[in-house]
Amino acid sequence: MSRKPYLRKMPKSWWLARRSYTSYMARELSCVFIGAYSLLIVVGLHRLSQGRDEYGAFLDALQSPLSLVFHAAALVFALIHTVSWFSLAPKAMPLQIGEKKLSGGPVVLAHYAVWIVVSAGVLLVARI
Amino acid sequence: MDVIETDVVIVGAGGAGLRAAIAVAEADPSLNVALTSKVYPMRSHTVAAEGGAAAVIKDNDSLENHFNDTVTGGDWLCDQDAVELFINEAPKELTRMEHWGCPWSREPSGHVAVRPFGGMKVERTWYAADKTGFHMLHTLFQTSLKYPSIKRFDEYYATDLLVEDGRCQGIAAIELRSGQMRVFAAKAVIIATGGAGRIFPFTTNGGVNTGDGAVMAYRAGVPLKDMEFVQYHPTGLPGTGILITEGARGEGGVLINNEGYRYLQDYGLGPPDPWPRKKAMELGPRDRLSQAFWHEERAGKTVATPHGQAVHLDLRHLGEKKINERLPMVRELALSYMGVDPVFKPIPVRPVVHYMMGGIHTDIDAATPLAGLFAAGECACVSINGANRLGSNSLTEILVFGGRAGRGAVEHVRSGGKDVDRTAIEEQAGEAQKRVAALFQKADGTETVVGLRKEMNHIMETGAGIYRSKESLEEACKTIGELRRRYADVRLEDKSNVFNTDLVQVLELGSMLDAAHVLAHSALNREESRGSHQRLDKTERDDETYLKHTLAHYTGEGDPRLEYLDVKITKSPPGERVYGGAAS
Amino acid sequence: MTEQTLQVEILRYRPETDQDPAFQTYTVPYRDDWVVLDALNHIKDNIDRTLSYRWSCHMAVCGSCGMMINGEPKLSCHAFLRDYYPNKVRVEPLANFPIERDLVAVTDDFMEKLESVKPYVIPQQERAVDEGPHLQTPAQLNAFKQYTMCINCLLCYAACPQYGLTPDFVGPAALALAHRYNLDTRDAGREQRQEIAASNEGVWDCTFVGECSQACPKSVDPAAAIQQTKIASTIDWYKALLNPWGKR
Q: Which terminus of chain A, N or C, has fewer Cβ atoms within 10 Å?
């Protein structure tokens, strides 16, 4: 038998090979920050339930340099997360009216619109 | 040598081969089918057909119309019993394709839509945008996956038919990935390997269209019929030969010369209406349009391009919306390969070799004179195409006769009853293997595949092209004869086993030279002009002598032995082919 | 004037003599209307008869000639030299598939996966030929038309890192074709296809890199097909959860 198919291994650094792969990995990594931040809020709520002093100490801890760095990073990754997923949304939600398939633009815009409305709602509630 | 035992082996897995396989599986699921092809099924050249498939379904049309258009288009060389059967089965076959999921284009009501094609009195071409062949091939391929009795052998190059006791009992084929020869022992064999357009330099045909199957049958003693008839498609891109579908003219595209003049009106195809009149002008038959180009070129009225002379196919007046909707592939091809956007500029086009009307001699059941051997599609000649195939009949033909070949094979297996003579066919396959091995052992041939192929391409174009003459054909016969002799010294440079494409090209060249040989001799002997066979020295049709099919028999190293067979005329006596205003 | 030339670097692998693949460089004439396939044919015809690759139609519809060209999966008949000139062009076999030889990849895996998703009409009830064609409006046709355009060139598999990392993944083209039949008004086979399509190796192995749709030369958008299948499968799951007695 003279056949000897050669299997190339994917290098560990495959995600650096192309920009699009790298930005995909950034999107994947963003989940870690989103998850960590959600956990932080849960901890905060827990502290709040324990009483004023505990919650105060939690808020103080948030002022630490390490926490600030984490927040900055979380914000960046949250934005990556949002923008990249919103831009992919039309693929999951195709719109067709009659014969015509619509472009993804309206779906993406609708996502941003909902995001802004919800954010505004949250801020409004926070003010009260 | 490995032997694969099966009931039916099919060579070629394009439209006709797949349709045949499905027909066998449906007629008798207990029979095993080995579907072999030198490429994966979806790479077969059916994929490149664009325009559509003809069948009568609309109330304004009739079977009579389809019959007449086909027979007239074929310049009365069609067998009329075959045409009658073909037009009757056509709507059923296309309906079956619809049931299998073919995405036919639709009318707003949801009914299948049809479009006009060249040489048609009434529009009757079913289409799937301008990718009809692609959709049909994939529908057939995907549907074939449903049947467990169909076993595929992808990328096997068949070299020989194994014939013993006057019956075809299998094939020898090389598995390309290993380079090993295998025997397929079968009670029936179906050849569906397509055309041989690659013997010409400018062709719409893909690299795979080298006539292997037809020549394999020819070498096994089955005659090739009407090989002198080669259809030029009037609108191919210069250089690459990429096809610009007739659908472009069906939608209203016009052909103009270097003066911006719709020259077809000078060739009995007028009047030049601003709208697409059926059977007139740009919707005249393919042979007439290609011949008109030849005259325009002689008159210096063509346009020079880097790849030779051309005329212009003008679609601009259709507008961007219609072009995008109906002819998206045309726009894409013109943009990519010519750098021309048909919305704004006319596309340079020229006639290019498109289709071989001739092929393996079969009857209306797709059976050849060799017991157990069937053939269908472009490699076969029933003949429903006569001297010039009507546009959009070929996609329908692969279904109708592919299906008949499959059912015929089942019938043969059931009634033939005799067992395969294993010893005899293995011995024959051993001989086939020795021939291939000799190529490997030969120290150093003096001839190259590329050199021989170029010479063959050149002489076929100049000697047996759109217009032919006694002198040009004699020259072609002589040259091809020499090339065949020189082929014995061809050099195989790649001596490895795994996926040896040099070997494939050497074998393909052998097939092409034999096909070209038959073509040139058949053309030389037909001293008349009929359909696509136009002789400058014999300009008239001669029904007295040549209302006959040519049958070419293999004689080994010598010239083919030619015989003639009467054309079957049932209800349409030979008449004048009338196109243009006079036809409506 | 000297002829303009272009360097083409090709990953060669001849299993009978080579241990590993290695690049070999050829110099070909440069023509602005040539595609990479023309350069390969030039090499095969004039320089090196031993170079192996697949091709046929030269018009981007047969799907034979998918290759990695400068690291991107492309049809070599549709990759123009003018887009690379004067830089050299690097040609490799399709990524994520074993190499049979030179530029020929072993693609059996795809053929098996395609078959596994039952890419054919599974009707509610067999329809006789005499009953004629189904009615299907242009709108109904357009709902699935784009997914019928797949030429099985496998560029999407070469673009998909998930397929490279998880070879069991059914993959973009096969899943897009399953979706194509699911959306066809003539078909009632979705449930049968879900067995594979909605399995772990089916749509759920997809992490939505989206590169398949970028690589697709026919704008099939397999990534969209997969995400839509995910949503439909999720809805199935909730329906089954809320109504355990209902028909699955």
A: C
For residue C98, give the CATH number of its domain.
3.10.20.30
| CA-based nearest residue to B280, from B270, B290, B293 | B270
Please state the domain extents for chain B: 2-229+357-421, 237-351, 427-546
Q: What is the pLDDT of residue C108?
A: 97
3 state DSSP class of B45: helix
Say whether residue A2 is in contact with chain B using an 8 A CB cutoff. yes
**Residue C102 sits at the chain A interface (C-beta within 8 Å):** no
Is the same domain home to C139 and C67? no
C53 touches chain B (CB under 8 A): yes
| H helices present in chain C, as ranges | 36-46, 108-116, 138-145, 155-159, 161-165, 172-183, 190-197, 211-215, 222-242
Start and end residues for every CATH 1.20.1300.10 domain found in chain A: 14-78
Is there a contact between B498 and A3 if contact means CB atoms under 8 Å apart?
yes
- What span, in angstroms and rounded, lies between the C-alpha atoms of B171 and B182? 8
Q: What is the ipTM for the molecules in this complex?
A: 0.97
C247 within a domain of the structure (yes/no): no
Sign, CA torsion C47/C49/C53/C57: positive
Chain C interface disruption, residue of B44, B99, B439, B503, most C CBs within 10 A: B99
Q: Is residue B324 within 8 angstroms of chain A, CB to CB?
A: no
In whole angstroms, give the CA distance from residue B332 to residue B338. Answer: 10
Tokens of C190: 């979705």
Do C88 and C119 lie in a common domain? no
User: For chain C, what is the domain count?
Assistant: 2
pLDDT digits (tens, 9 = 90+) for C174-216: 999 999 999 999 999 999 999 999 999 999 999 999 999 999 9
The shortest C-alpha distance from B163 to chain C (Å) reads 31
Question: Among A92-106, B232-246, B299-313, C29-43, which stretch is predicted with the lowest mean pLDDT?
Answer: A92-106
Task: Give yes or no for residue B535 having a pLDDT over 70.
Answer: yes
User: C232 to each of A93, B329, C203, C228, C239, how far by Cα in Å?
Assistant: 11, 32, 11, 6, 10
Task: Give yes or no: B316 in active site.
Answer: no
Terminal Cα-to-Cα distance of chain B (whole angstroms): 62
Residues 6+ apart with CB under 8 A from C58: B206, B207, B240, B242, C35, C37, C77
Each residue's pLDDT tens digit, A47-87: 999 999 999 999 999 999 999 999 999 999 999 999 999 99
Based on the domain organization, do C99 and C129 belong to the same domain?
no
**C165 part of a folded domain:** yes
Q: Are residues C9 and C90 in the same domain?
A: yes
- Based on the domain organization, do C118 and C42 belong to the same domain? no
Q: How many helices (H) and strands (E) does chain A have?
A: 4, 2
The residue annotated as part of the active site, out of B152, B233, B361, B407, is: B233
Q: Which residue of C has its CA nearest to A12?
A: C165
CATH topology of domain B2-229+357-421: FAD/NAD(P)-binding domain (3.50.50)
* Domain, as residue range, for C217: 108-242
Catalytic residue among B249, B262, B331, B577: B249
Q: Which fold has domain A14-78?
A: 3 helical TM bundles of succinate and fumarate reductases (1.20.1300)
C101 and C113 fall within a common domain: no
Residue C173: give its domain's CATH number.
1.10.1060.10
Residues 6 or more apart from A72 whose CB is under 8 A from it? none
B549 is an active site residue: no
Which fold would CATH assign to domain B237-351? Flavocytochrome C3; Chain A, domain 1 (3.90.700)
| Alpha carbons B146 and B551: distance in angstroms, whole number | 39
Q: Is B497 on the interface with A (CB under 8 A)?
A: yes
Confirm if C245 and C238 have CB atoms less than 8 A apart.
no
Backbone angles phi, psi at B60, to 5 degrees: -80, 0
